[in-house]
């Protein structure tokens, strides 16, 4: 058990708020966060070391893992409890919307985000800029966009993502259908020489990830996972021929039989492009199908 986990367990045992079930769930959730932080490259020596950058990193990871709004709300409530008990309540925003997460009562918040050109230009690191371009153009997860190797991935009409870059180790392909995608790939290929990736040769993935988090946080570029949602919604519009429910389109009940067929076909294609095995997960990106 690492130092942070041990300290969080002690914190929970000193502060027995709520029922036994609540206490047990909170402790289990907080110790899982300690594991997440370690995986992200943050080795906090104690619970008191929690900072806003750690909260941002955790939320971005949960978004990348496609956790539901309800699940992230629970985790944020545990984080707020943690921050309160160490006397640093302002470390975690009281507003879930700050993190792109729906409040209770909202069915689903539209997390789609367009890239702010001014914030993008303010990023100093060209490798991080290139990763963001790939997230916007192809709906890639942050890890996939950081590990991207253009000489390995680029084909005439699609990109191929290797299992070592993707969640769950599932390789996949994403079609090249727009001029913006080709421009993004050209930019990346010009930046990366030989068989390299968007991780500079002198850095590890974790080091580049922390640099990515620092650079995007510094310029106020939050919820970069929102680029993936925007990609899914653009693809839905192209494939189905009308906007998805979450972007102001018809609900399932309002659709005609032909529109429902188009909706289902678009979701299958988008699910494959995003690297998901379950069609249901597209509800998070597009709105409920039923």
TrEMBL record:
UniProt-listed GO biological process terms: DNA integration; DNA recombination
Entry protein name: Integrase
Protein's organism: Rhizobium leguminosarum
Residue span, Integrase catalytic domain: 122-233
Molecular function in Gene Ontology: DNA binding
Keywords: DNA recombination
Pfam families xrefs: Integrase_1, Phage_int_SAM_2
InterPro entries per record: DNA_brk_join_enz, Integrase-like_cat_sf, Integrase_catalytic_putative, Putative_integrase_N
Domain of life: Bacteria
Domain Putative integrase N-terminal, chain residue ranges per copy: 1-89
């Amino acid at each position: 058990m690492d130092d942070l986990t041990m300290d969080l367990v002690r914190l929970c045992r000193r502060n027995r708020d709520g029922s036994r079930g609540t206490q047990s769930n909170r402790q289990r959730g907080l110790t899982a966060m300690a594991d997440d932080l370690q995986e992200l490259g943050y080795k906090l020596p104690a619970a008191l070391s929690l900072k806003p950058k750690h909260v941002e990193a955790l939320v971005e990871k949960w978004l990348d893992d496609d956790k539901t709004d309800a699940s992230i709300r629970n985790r944020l409530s545990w984080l707020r409890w943690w921050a309160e008990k160490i006397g640093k309540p302002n470390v975690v925003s009281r507003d879930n919307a700050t993190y792109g997460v729906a409040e209770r009562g909202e069915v689903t918040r539209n997390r789609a985000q367009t890239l702010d050109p001014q914030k993008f230009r303010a990023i100093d690191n060209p490798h991080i800029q290139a990763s963001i371009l790939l997230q916007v153009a192809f709906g890639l997860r942050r890890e996939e966009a950081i590990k991207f190797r253009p000489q390995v991935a680029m084909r005439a009409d699609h990109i191929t993502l290797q299992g070592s870059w993707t969640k769950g180790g599932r390789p996949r392909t994403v079609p090249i259908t727009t001029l913006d995608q080709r421009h993004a790939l050209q930019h990346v290929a010009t930046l990366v020489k030989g068989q390299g990736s968007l991780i500079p040769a002198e850095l590890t993935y974790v080091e580049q990830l922390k640099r990515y988090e620092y650079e995007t946080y510094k310029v106020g570029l939050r919820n970069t996972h929102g680029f993936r949602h925007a990609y899914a919604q653009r693809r839905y519009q192209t494939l189905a021929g009308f906007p998805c429910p979450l972007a102001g389109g018809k609900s399932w009940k309002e659709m005609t039989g032909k529109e429902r067929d188009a909706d289902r076909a678009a979701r299958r294609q988008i699910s494959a492009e995003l690297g998901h095995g379950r069609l249901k997960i597209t509800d998070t990106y597009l709105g409920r199908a039923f």
